[in-house]
Fold this sequence. Notes:
Low-confidence stretches: none
Number of domains: 2
Bound molecules: (2R)-2,3-dihydroxypropanoic acid
CATH class of the largest domain: Alpha Beta
Radius of gyration: 21 Å
Largest sheet: 7 strands, parallel
Distance between the termini: 29 Å
Oligomer: single chain
Amino acid sequence: MKPVIYVTRKIPEKVLKPYRSHFDVRMWEAADEPVPRDVLLKEIQDADGLLCLLTEQIDRELLEHGEKLKIVANMAVGFDNVDVAAAKERGVMVTNTPDVLTDTTADLTFALLMAAARRIVEASEYIKSNAWENWSPYLLAGADVHHKTIGIVGMGRIGQAVAKRAKGFDMHVMYHARSRKPDAEREIGAVYKAFDELLAESDFVVCLVPLTNQTADLFNREAFRKMKNSAVFVNVSRGGTVDEDALYDALTKGEIRAAGLDVFKGEPIGAEHPLVQLDNVAALPHIGSASEETRSKMLTLCLDNVTAVFNGEKPLTPVSTQ
Ligand code: DGY
């Protein structure tokens, strides 16, 4: 009897094929639509392993339905959608997908920073809506990126990869994290700052912290008030790290200049979302790691983790709290 693996979204056969001989693969087949909760609660009862996405809440109730479950392989580096403590109590391994997405996510972070600073989305919409009549000196003039100060909050792998890119733009790099990063300080010249100092001194504040009880609404009214009026805020972490009403007020009252947002509370959001309606917001639908190559690597890493567990080996990338 092969272990049963439940996959919560239709994934490409070319990624899955090498693993089919090891597992009885069952999958939610509807393309690009999350598995309904009642279906997942039923399917999990037979599953020895689960490959899930950040669209699924892997909470205590679900884990209790999965009596045979040995591993939850989450296709994301963030794992705030998984109750890791409840999984641990039940002896269920949880894995994530670090490393393979680092550079892709750092590229997107930098692209979003530049888009917000140089008003690239707004400028593209301007021409597409046929509004361009003349060249003029300050038409869609934005803020420079080069030689400015970037403050990275959360200096893990992605934060450090963003810092390297910033160095290429002759930026001064500051960071805040739970612990000092001597390698980044030595190799990239990143300067550690207390959170409040970083907010006050940065031209670009980039949020890359994982969402935890400690980081929920970290960027609140007080935080935005401490930033420069010319600051650009970029979030490629999770929407839950930001008080979105406070961000809206900061952007509309001129407390900060602009924002680049790849993540939101309560995703997916629509065009009616107040932040999306602002000209000084560049908004993306959570595509930080979305290159074809990286998304395939993330899925393959999930499947390698599942394989390792059923071979009686340690998974390659258990979540760091385990
Ligand atoms: C992650 O890996 O946590 C990203 O948000 C998904 O792209």
